[in-house]
Each structure stands twice: as structure tokens, then as C-alpha cells.
Design goal:
Its EC number is 3.6.5.n1. By secondary structure, this protein is of the alpha+beta class. Helix content is about 25%, strand content about 35%. The protein binds guanosine-5'-triphosphate.
Amino acid sequence: MDTKFKRNFSIIAHIDHGKSTLADRLLQITNTVSEREMKEQLLDSMDLEREKGITIKAQAVTLFYDAKDGNRYELNLIDTPGHVDFIYEVSRSLAACEGALLVVDAAQGVEAQTLANVYLALENDLEILPVINKIDLPAADPEKVKEEIETVIGLDTDEAVLTSAKSGIGIEELLEEIVKKVPSPSGKPESPLKVLIFDSHFDDFRGVITYVRIVEGTLKKGDKLRIWSTGKDIEVLECGIFSPIMKPQNELTAGSVGYIISGIKSIQDTRIGDTIFNPKNPIEEPLEGYRPAQSMVFAGIYPISTEDYEDLREALEKLQLNDASLSFTPETSTALGFGFRCGFLGLLHMEIIVERLRREYNIDLISTTPSVEYRIHMENGEIKIIDNPAEFPIVGKKAVEEPYIKGTVITPKDYVGNVMELCQEKRGIYVDMQYLDETRTMITYELPLAEIVLDFYDKLKSKTKGYASFEYEMIGYKESKLVKVDILVSGEPVDAFSFICHSDNAYYRGRAITEKLKDVIPRQMFEIPIQAALGSKIIARETIRAYRKNVLAKCYGGDISRKKKLLEKQKQGKKRMKQIGNVEIPQEAFISVLKLD
Ligand code: GTP
């Protein structure tokens, strides 16, 4: 098809503002899927994704629309992940588009996430079409939302489309707007080939499926191509479009979006953002903006039972096949045994991986407290980068730096005080406050990433009754007074309990952990001191008194089978204990310490 009849666009929206429902409607009205085939929320295909109600992986679909001007248009809708953890994937997906539909809930208004994605779309020079959705709701106030879009984002909303994705209002009008307003792609089919990889996934039968946007040139089945950053040669075994299932084509031309299959076995080889070109007709420069995904949050993952170690490794390898942003290396802990140090894009990414390991691979595991990457300047000029408290040097440090973010919170004005209090408590530096309208406020703070990864979201939710939305971006490293606190059980340091924190919080957090451990470690036959230590200085101490637990005490009658059962239960309980020196620590202790706030 001639590029002038192609339109590539994305939908950006805050969670729950109706992105998936709207996408479904577009598919339905263009007969891309028949009503019968229409499965609710077709674009969100992963189970976990549906359960958590968020879109994780970008996906694409090609629609053909017969517009009122009598022409048939190829519309490529590229779905983007909704969460900040996947912001890099969002930005690559947007790079494959010329336009974006900005969907805003008519009853809720602009939220923090909407903003972050709009800024990304603007950076990518996309034409943004405001869409006010859910106008069927009794609480809908499209005029107010339009005003908000104008003041906060500065977009003209005169021609904003009003829709109800649920009841199908305004969908046709929206398609017309897309055809009219979204620019057609500028690439030429006869130019040297330049292909953007904007996503990829691993299929058990077909190997890696690479999602591509043909930026320049023409790609044909059988072409022998090369990937820019790795220099790896590939052969196009199949190329095609998503409609929404994969539909093979003989060629894909400039401006089109689709997939290629090239027999690649690992998605590590087809990184998001990379460029594919044809070495027979080489290009001078790759497409802009490629960078490998970077882990922001790190944690140890340990199987509860050591027999599961190999299964855990296999499971991680499998997950990595489909997720190039997951990294892991083997790690040992005296307390937890053999496990893996894993790197994640963010906390949500970590939660999803841990949940999938538990659910899809049936592995019981413990994850350590998430940590960030610290930069340590040593006296000898060396710079150490560490993400594990165990590697924190005790002597020879000159300065320690930690990653900071710029966080934006949008909240009803009644909760402004609570939000500011929380940000201060989390060592935030106030930047700015802006009134969006008479009821809502946007607050900006700089905060240490380490404070965000712990429990910021949960606290923000509870302090604003769930009304605030939050978004952040990395702004770089800042020097902080950071220390490592060790926890000693019976005089022995337990590495899994160690943590890095700001020196002002060391005493309070040390005491909270020792108190918690006192409650969860059962009494044993001797006295057990539990201490928190800053280097050689003890900053908190609790003692568990000696005690012998007689499990049969409850059993007054002579029922022998009941006695046996209780003894058996005690034995089982022992199995789930970890021996540290002469003290047995139950698994629950590790978990409860990690959950400490
Ligand atoms: P994520 O995938 O979580 O980012 O959410 P989303 O933006 O894709 O939202 P989704 O389409 O899942 O819609 C969220 C909820 O809003 C669902 O319960 C939809 O049924 C509902 N919804 C979507 N559009 C409309 C609409 O126009 N009117 C009404 N009343 N409800 C809608």
C-alpha cells in the first residue's frame, strides 16, 4: 500500500481509563475481528496481566479502514505498556508511530501517568489526538477534562473526540480523526532498509518473533539482514502483519508495522530499540535512541528448599527468553543458601517475575529486600558499584552516592498535607506544586529511588485513600550519608538481614528489625541475643529467653495418634528452619523482616 494511506499510532492512557476497551472497539468496527471472535480485551493476552489489570508488553495490530473519503487505510495500532517500569518499552513503541491517542477518563481527568506518556509522545514528535472516554458515565464532565488537558498539557482540545468505548459512541468519528490528523509515514520503499525493533517475544515453536516498524525501504521474505548493535546476521524466514493473529506477507514496505521470524533462539539478540539493515545496501547510521534496558532494582531470589535450585535457574532462563530486561547471576548467602541476584526494571517488574516463578513454575521462594545500585567512591580513587549490602565496604570509603528520581504526584487537594509529609519522611526534596483545578494538585519532589522501591506506593495509596497517582523518572546520582546495618543473631551476622540505609534511619530501622525478630524466632534452650550493629557499634538489642517447647503439653488425654501428629508437625517445622550458628531461624522470620516498614 502507498505510504500515504498508512497511519501508525499508539494509545496512551492512565491505568483503567479504557485503553484496552477502546482498542477492542477499533478492532471490532473495522471487522479485524468478528463479533463472535471478539474476546474481551484482546490486546492484553497474558493471564497475570489481566489479573493485575495492566498492560505489560507492547503489541501491535493492523486494521484496514474504509474512510469516508473513499480510500482504504492501513492503520497500525501499537499497544504500549502502561507502567513506569516499562517506560523504555513505551518510548520505543512510540518511536514506531506518528500519532498517539491520548485517552482520558471523562470522570477522572488527567493523571500522573498520562503526563509521563504525553511527554514521551511529544519528545517523539507525535501528533496527539485528545480522546475523552467514558462519556456515558453519570459523573462524566468532558468540558472540565478538556480544560484540564489544556492547562496541564497545553494541548488544544477544540477537536477532542468524545467516546464511550464501552457503549461504542464516537468510535467511527475517532477513526476519521486518525486518518485526517495522524501524519502518514515519511519513509520510502526504495531507500536502503532501516527497520526498528520495538518489541520481541519468544514462541516455543517458532523461536523469536520480532515486532518491527519498517522505517525505510522494503523487507522481503528470504532477505539476509544484519542487526546493528550485535552485528548478528539473520535471514527473514517469514514476515507479516498482525491482524490480530500473524498473517504472513511476501514483503513489508516503508511505514508498515509487522513481525519477522528469523530462527533466532534468544531475544537477547533482538533488543528493543535496535536497527535491522541489509548489508548489501548498507546504511550509515542506525535509528536513534537505542540503549540496552537497564536494571534499577535488585534483589536476591532463593528457593525455600535447596532441591529447587536447578528448577529456579531453569525457570529464570525461560523467563529471560521472553524478557531481555531481566538479569540474574548466581549468589550465595550464609543464611539463605544458593540463589540468584536478579536485576529488574522496577518494583512492579520484580513483583511480576516473582509471582510468575511461584505460579507458573511452582517454586516456593524468598526474595530479599529490593535494593538499588549504589556508587561508592573509594579513597584510592576507585569507584565501586554495588547493589548488595554484603558488598558494602566498611573502610576506605570517601563518599557514597545513590540514585534519585523526580516524582510527580497528582492528588485531590485534601491530601496535599499527607503527600508532602510522606515525601519528607522519605527524604524528599521539594521542587514544585501546581494547582490543576480547584480540586486537584500536582506536587513534584526529588526522592531517593531506594525509598520508592520499599513501600512508597503502598503508603501513598493509604495516605490518599487511593486517589493519588504517581509517576517518576530517573535524574541521576546524589551523594548521601549511607551506612550498612548488620543484624547479629547470637553474635553471628545474618547476611540476609543486612541493609543499607541513610544514617538518620539506621537506629530506628535496626530497632524495628530486632523487635520483629524477637517475636518471630521461637525460644530455644538457651538465651539468644539479637543485635543491630553499625560496624562494630551495637545500636539495638533484644534478647530471646531460653525455653523448651513441649509440644505434648497440650495433649492431656492418652490419644497416641494425636501425640504422634504433634511430634510430626514439630519435625516438619524444624525442616523449614534455617540453622545460623547454633540458632534455628524459621523462614517466616526472613519474610517478616523483608515486609517490615
Ligand atoms: P490498563 O490495561 O489497566 O491500562 O487499563 P485500560 O486503560 O486498558 O482500561 P480498560 O480498557 O481495561 O478499562 C478499564 C475499565 O473501564 C473496564 O472496567 C472497562 O469496562 C471500563 N471502561 C472502559 N471504557 C469505558 C467507557 O467508555 N465507559 C464506561 N462506563 N466504562 C468504560
